[in-house]
């Protein structure tokens, strides 16, 4: 796909008149907080390491419906999306059907890899990370996100939860260095999303009892009880010193992270020099 191709409308990510990207809260109101944090961390990653109108090539690995296409398309001349044929995310717009366990690309084919909320669904994350490393150019970078405290989803293909130390270890075993790791909020984010989850469950159960579809998701009540609290938290998250800052690789230690978080984002880099994995 080339930069001139049209961008699908009505997707998760919207570009505002001021040029800034934000999540369309109407698409997935119950996960607005998580989606917005991933989006803002991705934008920061792209703006830091790449230039708009660049000539590089990006792989969206586990792309699903390609929700971040409007964002990364501005930075690369060519983008390729891949996901498994049986993905539940509406894969009609994919470029390639395949698996991360065996990527159908040559060595060093990409300058950048994007992999959001995918590794928990891979039965062999070590093999998948090695494949990502293989197709990434030397000096290339990878942006990934993964959940931690999160309900089971896409059952039965929900296998793992990763700590920052697991991310660093899997990356090192694949010849990648973790440049930085960020959290998707702390205890407050977890508490908010847990209450939101229970509230949504209540309305779903009520709908089942009433025997019809609940109008809740499209109502003012949704905005007041689901969307607004998440918007308030996001405002605090962006303003609080250090809250949105990623921890650099050499500082990955217990004291640098909240013990409770919704998940992590990570920036990985493929270096010419070998990366040594920590062993017991």
From TrEMBL:
InterPro entries reported for this sequence: Methyltransf_11, SAM-dependent_MTases_sf
Gene3D superfamilies tied to this protein: Vaccinia Virus protein VP39
SUPFAM superfamilies tied to this protein: S-adenosyl-L-methionine-dependent methyltransferases
Methyltransferase type domain segment(s): 59-143
Pfam families with a match to the protein in the record: Methyltransf_11
One Gene Ontology term of the molecular function aspect: S-adenosylmethionine-dependent methyltransferase activity
Protein name: Conserved domain protein
Organism: Methylococcus capsulatus (strain ATCC 33009 / NCIMB 11132 / Bath)
